[in-house]
Amino acid sequence: MTQAPTYDVCAVGNAIVDVLAPCDPAFLTAQGLTPGSMQLVDAQQSAALYAAMAPGVEASGGSAGNTVAGIGSFGGRAAYIGKVADDQLGGVFSHDIRAAGVAFDTAPLTDVATGVCMINVTPDGQRTMCTFLGAANQLSAADIDADLIGPSAIVYLEGYLFDPAPARAAFEAAAAAAHAAGRKVAITLSDTFVVARWRAELLAFIEASA
After folding, report:
1. Max CA-CA distance within the chain?
2. 154 with 182: CB under 8 angstroms?
3. Cβ(40)–Cβ(137) below 8 Å
4. Which has the closest alpha carbon to 81: 8, 139, 138?
5. Helix, strand, coil shares of the chain as percentages rounded to 5?
6. How many CB atoms are closer than 10 A to CB 94?
7. How many domains, in total, are found in the chain?
8. pLDDT tens-digit profile of 149-180?
């Protein structure tokens, strides 16, 4: 007989800190950014842009992270598995998600920075985003805690993480742990690029594991 769940949802996703700052169009031009765009950047580009930006507001984000924070805000019981670093932004993310009532105990990394999405906002409200995935992209099957998955009624998988092979293995491990405990598995496709790049693999995963 399946035990009553401790958590309503346990999400697995990219742990990202959003940094929002005001800017004018000239700043975007100087940084070589297309207004309203979203692009991935490397560690060097991320550090240079962060240093050039105006003072900003930091808030924990990421698709799955936002989902479980929302569940917590409605009085639900939520847990989260995602990778941050042992750095300032990693501390921000860990504090914010726990303050939202979400259980979060994934061990941090020490050799790469926490993922960050730098969002420059022009006076017309347009957002221009540059994302450095950093530690978020290093999630692996070793980070999947079956003792956390097992007591969760639903395991929610963030499609963005399907891109790197180690994170895909984490998906498979999370789904296997959920099914072994008699729980449900949900997956969000997240973005059209995920489907365009991995359509066949996603269909195979959904057929076998979701």
Report:
1. 63
2. no
3. no
4. 139
5. 40, 25, 30
6. 19
7. 1
8. 999 999 999 988 888 889 899 999 999 999 99
**2 falls within a domain:** no
Question: What's this model's pTM, rounded to 2 decimal places?
Answer: 0.86
How does DSSP classify residue 20?
Answer: E
Residue 46 is encoded by which pair of tokens?
Answer: 């991320």
The first and second tokens of residue 207, run together, are 């057929």
Residue 108 DSSP symbol: P
Q: Tokens standing for 121?
A: 């906002």
For residues 94 and 104, the answer to whether their CB atoms sit within 8 Å is: yes
Asked if residue 148 belongs to a domain, the reply is: yes
Write out the residue range of the structural domain in which residue 13 sits: 7-209
pLDDT, tens only, 106-153: 999 999 999 999 999 999 999 999 989 999 999 999 999 999 999 999
